[in-house]
Write a structure and sequence with these properties.
alpha/beta; 11-stranded mixed beta sheet; 8-stranded parallel beta barrel; 12 helices; 22% helix; globular; disordered N terminus
């Protein structure tokens, strides 16, 4: 308790003193200000507001340091956006042409708006439809079938949806479009309805459904909207009758659809890739509870699907946000590293008594840490919300959610307002371009909320960098951003989301040594210091005292020249004094350096050194605990 109280006091003092003044030894560059910054705050005082630019400088900082390492890269990005549902189209068509085009520009134009770059489009009807009845692209009277697909038509979409999609592609030629059906045509299903039931387990039905999806892709391409990705069923484990289209599609059935679709799609539209699953990070408890007796709930659905013979036709897996957390994406990536991961649906929502201010604050902060940063730090190639626009009643909709929110809201007086999702998506889509690659950055916050700083960084195709930072804390937080030997300091209000950008630069960046070390220490939790995740930490769990240590086994003799001892975002937990020693056998040790810590990140230059073992030992005392969130080696 003393430690927590002390930490709180340190946070308040640092926020007050450091938010507005650089530390001694830190010298902003006198060159032009290369860093631009945009901020959105939970109180709406700033909404993607561009603040004064700043410059990288030389020197050290005692603040929590977000270290950017462009030499380490992860997934490439396809884009960020939402779904232009039938409901969203109907809402936009309530506007006169000039206002409608202004709304579209605010969404898809990267200069006048946020440059939405990814749309996930329902194939037929979903719960968010403005029609009186649900529809597919091949509806026939009850009791009839259409295996030849003679009645196939996308005429419904030609009225409003496709004109808006074509305009969106004009405004953003790099727009990626994904198609997802909520249900096959009713005549293909055991229920005889778009609502509920299974796909009939019949080879002729699998073939017909595969051809139906190919005809959709071809028809949309002819209409000027090529389809880049396709899934075969939205939420295949969702068996709830919510009054809207849905189909239970167990793994064996989805695999049969994909196996029939893959060869046809490769021939008809090679650009269109198939994604599997398209459901939650974990199987929702409600989906488990509604599993029919004797049927497997398939809680490892995406693993089974990727491991099945249909896996060869899949580019990867799509995920939703309504159960579990984004770490499920990393677990799947580790099991199937050659397959991509896309995050494709999450709706903002609210309680019946929430005020507009409550809705904005809660949505901004949850979506910032969980979607904008949480999914992308866990291998997602896209971040996609649900409806791109709704009216003030959360509709129109036919069944399903009545508390959902969109990126835009049409108000009763005819004005269009921007919701929190507009800004959480905008902090990505406006600055992170299709083809960008996520690069390494130290992040200290978690999707479960721990009140610390959370971030993700990208290198754009033109070489520029975009860094998105979220202050999870309700209090202002000051921090440093470092790229090699250059850095800048900044302060964000409580709960704020920010994007920093800077052009391709000539900053020399040390090359990080990639290892998979194991660790031991004088207290439990040593592995958290060497897991390449600054949101976890090893701690002394007691006031600092001489003799406390952390020892890393690098696995094999490894060459390095610099050592970064990062104490993370637990302010004050840095070593007051320390000794660095190295060994090749874990028995005989030689001293590399001794020193004193003054802040959260201590970087020690030891010259070219080769060893298997590395030990950091405390030689000082403090009432603060000692933490190491990340131990990094550089050549």
């Amino acid at each position: 308790m003393f430690h927590l109280l002390q930490e709180a006091v340190v946070r308040i003092l640092l926020a007050a003193v450091l938010a507005f003044s650089p530390l001694p030894g830190f010298h902003p560059s006198s060159a032009r200000a290369d860093v631009r910054v945009w901020v959105t705050t939970p109180d709406r005082a700033e909404e993607l507001h561009e603040r004064a630019p700043l410059a990288f400088g030389k020197g050290t900082s005692d603040l929590t340091t977000i270290t950017i390492d462009p030499s380490v890269s992860y997934q490439s990005m396809d884009g960020f956006g939402a779904s232009l549902t039938d409901s969203a189209a109907a809402v936009l068509y309530r506007l006169d042409p000039a206002k409608r085009d202004a709304a579209l520009r605010s969404l898809f134009d990267s200069r006048q708006g946020i440059g939405v770059s990814f749309l996930r489009q329902p194939v037929g009807s979903s719960d968010f439809t403005a029609t009186a009845t649900h529809y597919s692209y091949d509806d026939v009277p009850a009791g009839q079938t259409d295996y030849a697909l003679r009645h196939f038509s996308i005429a419904h979409d030609e009225a409003q949806i496709l004109p808006l999609l074509r305009r969106a592609r004009q405004l953003n030629p790099q727009l990626t479009v994904m198609g997802t059906p909520w249900s096959p045509p009713a005549w293909m299903k055991t229920s005889g309805s778009l609502i509920g039931g299974h796909l009939k387990d019949d080879p002729a039905v699998y073939d017909a459904y595969a051809r139906y999806l190919v005809k959709y892709v071809q028809a949309y391409a002819r209409a000027g909207v090529p389809i880049d990705y396709l899934t075969v069923q939205n939420e295949p484990q969702n068996r709830h009758d919510g009054g809207y289209p849905g189909t239970a599609l167990p793994v064996p059935q989805e695999a049969k659809v994909i196996s029939a679709l893959g060869p046809l799609l490769r021939k008809a539209s090679p650009r269109t890739k198939i994604l599997g699953y398209d459901h939650n990070w974990t199987t929702h408890p409600g989906d488990v509870a509604t599993t029919p007796a004797g049927e497997d709930p398939e809680t490892d659905y995406p693993y089974r699907l990727l491991a099945s013979p249909a896996g060869k036709w899949l580019a990867g897996t799509a995920y939703h946000c309504y159960s579990g957390d984004p770490s499920a994406q990393t677990a799947l990536h580790q099991a199937f590293p050659a397959k991509g991961i896309w995050f494709t649906e999450c709706s903002g929502s609210h309680g019946p008594d929430d005020t507009p201010a409550d809705i904005f604050r809660g949505t901004l902060t949850w979506h910032a840490r969980t979607l904008a940063i949480g999914t992308t730090r866990n291998w997602a190639k896209s971040v996609v919300n649900w409806n791109i626009a709704l009216d003030s009643t959360g509709g129109p909709h036919l069944g399903g959610c009545d508390t959902c929110t969109g990126l835009l809201t049409l108000q009763p007086d005819g004005t269009v307002t921007r919701d929190a999702e507009y800004y959480t998506i905008g902090h990505l889509s406006k600055f992170v371009k299709p083809g960008a690659v996520r690069i390494a950055s130290t992040s200290f916050g978690t999707t479960g909320w721990n009140g610390q700083l959370m971030d993700v960084a990208f290198r754009n195709p033109d070489g520029s960098t975009a860094l998105i930072v979220h202050n999870e804390n309700d209090a202002p937080r000051s921090f440093t951003v470092a790229v090699g030997a250059r850095s800048f300091e900044y302060s964000l209000p409580g709960g704020a989301l920010a994007t920093f950008t800077w052009p391709r630069g000539a900053f020399p960046v040390p090359h990080q040594v990639t290892t998979e070390p194991t660790a031991t220490a004088s207290s439990p939790g040593a592995q958290d210091a060497v897991d390449a995740d600054a949101a976890t930490r090893w701690s002394s769990q007691a006031p600092q005292a001489p003799g406390q240590y952390l020892q890393a086994d690098l696995g094999t003799p490894t060459t390095y020249a610099k050592i970064a001892i990062d104490s993370g975002d637990n302010l004050g937990d840095y070593a007051r004094a320390f000794t660095l020693t190295a060994s090749n056998d874990g028995i005989h040790w030689r001293t590399l350096a001794t020193g004193t810590g003054t802040g959260q990140l201590t970087t020690v230059t030891v010259g070219t050194t080769r060893s298997r073992y590395l030990r950091v030992t405390s030689t000082g005392s403090s009432s603060s605990w000692w933490s190491i969130a990340d131990l990094r080696l550089y050549r």
